[in-house]
Amino acid sequence: MRKNILVVEDEKDIIEILRYSLEKEGYRVHVAQDGHAALEIAEKVVPNLILLDLMLPGLDGIEVCKRLKKEERLREIPVIMVTAKAEEADKVRGLEIGADDYVTKPFSSKELVARVKAHLRRHEGGVPEKSFYYGSLSVDTVKHEIRVESNEIELTAKEFELLLYLLENKGRVLTRDMILNHVWGYDYFGSTRTVDVHITRLRQKIPLLSKAVSTIKSFGYKLKEQAPA
Length: 229
Fold this sequence. Notes:
Elements: E1 4-8, H1 12-24, E2 28-32, H2 35-45, E3 49-53, H3 61-70, E4 79-83, H4 88-96, E5 101-104, H5 109-125, E6 131-134, E7 137-140, E8 145-148, E9 151-153, H6 157-168, E10 173-175, H7 176-184, H8 193-205, H9 208-212, E11 213-216, E12 220-223
Helix pairs in contact: 2-3, 6-7, 6-8
């Protein structure tokens, strides 16, 4: 079955480049030229992946991504931000609100298609069907539910995968490259800064992890073998 890709972009030249490159690979391409249209099409089509420009008329890409991540039917869709802004702050901001990756204009069509394929493979891979318990934290991978005591915690798809990887490797030091390769895939083109951003978000959403996840300077992270009291 052909996969649906939603391209959210207001520059016609970029739209045509993306449409040509993606359709050549067999994807069905849907186009929205502003934020409101993007949300409408996403609700109707429920695409397999979204390429989302940061600078859009009306709702900008950040706000569109925020709204997508609040919708139960849409929150698991991989989102790749496409932006002309190369500043670190803009990249981090996109990752912080739930985007899975980013590319900076001008981009290589071949590289962008490779990223699309990588994220689709990662998304289809799923997670092991079992549960994890760590102190007051419980994770049900079948229902995709995370709870701290009786409170349900909402995580993005990448945050969820990262949490599982940490739980599967309690007491083990994980380098940033190990985490990047496992959670984002060996063909991910981004930097290890992505890992730091997602660790920070996990610590914010699950306060238990602030004490439980240690930063190993210039190396990576480690989840303590036993949950702190």
